[in-house]
Amino acid sequence: MSDAAQPTAAEVRAAAEAVKAALDRHLAAVERRSGEDDPAVYEAFNELAAAAEEYDELLYDRYDEVTPFEIPGGEDTLPPYSGPEEPNALSVLIRRDYAVVEPQRLLAQAGRVADLDGDPDIDTDSATGAGSSVHAALGVLFGEFEPDEIASRHKEFGLEEGDSTLWVLAADEPPEAGEWLEAPFEQADPQQVVCRFDVSAVFDDDLGPDDDDSDPEDLELEEALEDADR
Question: Own/partner pairs for 43-50, CB < 8 Å, 24+ apart?
Answer without folding.
Answer: 46/74, 47/22, 48/19, 48/22, 48/23, 49/74, 50/22
